[in-house]
Amino acid sequence: MDEGSVNVESRTSSQDKRWTIMAALLGTNTAFMLFQGIEQERTYSWIREIALTIIAAAIPFQGIYFLIYTFILEHEGKLSEAHMNRLQTASAVCQLIAYASLLGVVMMWYNISDYVGVFFVLSTIAAVILIRMVMRPMAEDAALNSTS
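-> structure tokens emitted (148 positions)
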């Protein structure tokens, strides 16, 4: 492998997870824009219009996230700490805006059916509570192990 190329194996697990989540979110948003956009032309709905607008506004930020991610990988070890901090801040903002696009997805599910929307929100809350409960002991164990 050329030394100038990106070493995929050098990425950390958390970077891979964030990248995977963002890729899945971009795919979801693109699919919603395509199929719901076609439906919007056939049968206008103001809720769908707002949801598609939210999703459309997020897609460029998802693209920028991938550009930042690739730039950091390609220039690993060559960037100043200040530059890395700016890039990481921009990456975090892009992720936050991308996650906000889920609001548009939720609006579309509510538009399909009140039951689908309600149960999606309830299951999301349950999943977040579950993961917080499961991950909390691991974080506390890691903190205890690092101090000893």
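The chain has two domains: 8-112, 114-148.
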